[in-house]
């Protein structure tokens, strides 16, 4: 288990605009969660979601037995949503590095919260509470 993240559950609980959240390590071990009972088997595909844009966008994400379409692939960030324009839920994952070890923050957010708000919150959360998030510079 990644060291130094003992209080992460308390910090995750403070993120009241996120419907669900889970932080897990590179082995798929759950460090903290909020808003649902995490099925560890659902986390396995997320460990490889940054490996291939085509595979990730093609298969989408499943969390809490709900399928999400993935429409943005910008490592170390991937995000998407499910539902329609009047009701739905967004999803985002961010990979942070703690002492060189990948740790993932995965959240969902419901309308009226949009990715334009939730994704920057996720990046800030990961940087503040987990470690380095390296966002490539635009070309």
Automatic annotation (TrEMBL):
GO terms for molecular function: actin binding. It comes from the Eukaryota. This is Profilin. It comes from Stentor coeruleus.
